[in-house]
C-alpha cells in the first residue's frame, strides 16, 4: 500500500503527460477523503480553462468514484486534520498538502506526489517519497 496525493491522482485522471507512470501507484493506494474534493475541483478548473468539456469532466468524475470503490482507499481526514494543521504551521505548507504527509507518517507508508515542496517536507520527516519524473 502507498499514499497517493491529489496532484498524482489529478495527473492520472486528466491523462497529463506521464500519467501512465502513475498507473501502478493508483492500482492499490490510500489517500485522504479530501482528495476527492481536490480532484473534482481540478477537473472543474480544467473544464473552465476549456481543457475538458462537461461530458468528459463527468466521465472522469465517474472514473474517480469507481477508483475510490476499488483501487483508491479513502481515509477520513477527521483523525488527521489537527496534526496536519500543526505541520502546516511548522513547515509553512498548506493543510491540504500536510494531510497526505500526516497520513503517510501515521501509516508508515511511502508517499507519491508531484508536488516538489510537499515531497521535500515529507522526506525531511523520514517518509519515503516517490516523485516520478514525468514528461512535462
Helix-strand blueprint:
Elements: E1 3-4, H1 6-14, H2 23-26, E2 29-32, H3 34-48, H4 54-70, E3 72-75, H5 81-91, H6 95-107, E4 111-112, H7 116-124, E5 129-130
Parallel strand pairs: 1-4, 2-3, 4-5
In short:
The chain is mainly α and 136 residues long. Helix content is 57%, strand content 10%.
Explain what the structure shows.
The protein has 136 residues and is mostly helical. The chain has a single domain, classed as 3-Layer(aba) Sandwich (Rossmann fold). The chain is built from seven helices and five strands. It has helices at 6-14, 23-26, 34-48, 54-70, 81-91, 95-107, 116-124; strands spanning 3-4, 29-32, 72-75, 111-112, 129-130. It has a three-stranded parallel sheet. The protein has a two-stranded parallel ribbon with strand order 2-3. Helix 7 links the parallel strand 4 (111-112) and strand 5 (129-130). It is globular and about 40 Å long. The two termini are 26 Å apart. The mean pLDDT is 95.
For the structure shown, list the relevant keywords.
136 residues, mainly alpha, Rossmann fold, three-stranded parallel sheet, two-stranded parallel ribbon, 7 helices
Mean pLDDT across every amino acid position? 95
> Which strand order do you get reading across the main beta sheet?
1-4-5
What gap, in angstroms, lies between the N and C termini? 26 Å
Instruction: Please tell me how large the radius of gyration is.
Output: 14 Å
Q: How many H/I helices?
A: 7
| Strand fraction | 5-15%
The sequence of SSEs as H and E is EHHEHHEHHEHE
Question: What percent of the residues sit in helical stretches (DSSP H or I)?
Answer: 55-70%
Count of β-strands: 5
Structural class: mainly alpha
Give the name of the CATH architecture: 3-Layer(aba) Sandwich
Shape: globular
Count of separate structural domains: 1
* The CATH C-level class name: Alpha Beta
Biggest beta sheet summary:
3 strands, parallel
Q: CATH H-level name... which superfamily? A: 5'-nuclease
Unreliable stretches (pLDDT < 50, length at least 5) are none
